[in-house]
What does this fold into?
Amino acid sequence: METRTCLAALAATFFLAGCASIPSGKADPRDPLERVNRSVYRFNVAADRAIFRPVAKAWRAVVPRPVRRGLSNFVGNLEYPVTIINEVLQGKLTDGGRDVTRLLINSVAGLGFFDPATRAGFERHDEDFGQTLGKWGVPPGPYLMVPLLGPSSLRDAPAKLADEYTNGRHYIQDANVRWGLWAADKLELRATLLDADATLERSYDPYAFVRNAWLQRRQYLVKDGAVDETPADFGDDTLPEVAPDSGADPGGVKPP
It folds into this structure.
């Protein structure tokens, strides 16, 4: 019954997409599917307010911070092969070697739950297959708002599958443990972003706020910070700046 209800809600979301309006009246070339995306965004926000935000608040209130941090470190350690493999694919062999060392230090000395590698000078990097495709010249394509999962793009959404198969968590045999770690990681991520809710809700157009921040963040990651201000269409990774009145912080906005 729950599955049918969820499918019906999603179907209604896409049906209503034809009625969705664009507040500015002007389409963003990076977001040709904006009417559909806005409907999905509203669905995600409703789900977040009804389920994910209350659960995240309870998680933050009940679970002690050291436990949450240790669990986050453990899940991050399992995910770190994603970063290392994509560094190799991008030709970042020095970073790859340092991150292999980081993984070994945190796995052995930190038991997976602590992060002695950062204190030893091995900073954390962030690479994924979507970034690798961008490095290889694959354009991001249209912006996508994925039901329940939030912002993505036509390039990055399917790239998540490659990330999943290079994530150590994927190979844990016990399904309860595997999905429990996944759920705990997402809960912790949502809990850390609770303080950003007020900023998002104060924005004139929260959908555009999230879209611009996410696209700028992805551009920054793909280009390793070497960004410019030249506007372009959705066929490459160069993006215009966020409008001055949006107040967007590319690294500080929650995915709905």
Q: What stands out?
A: Residues 95 and 180 are 31 Å apart (CA to CA).
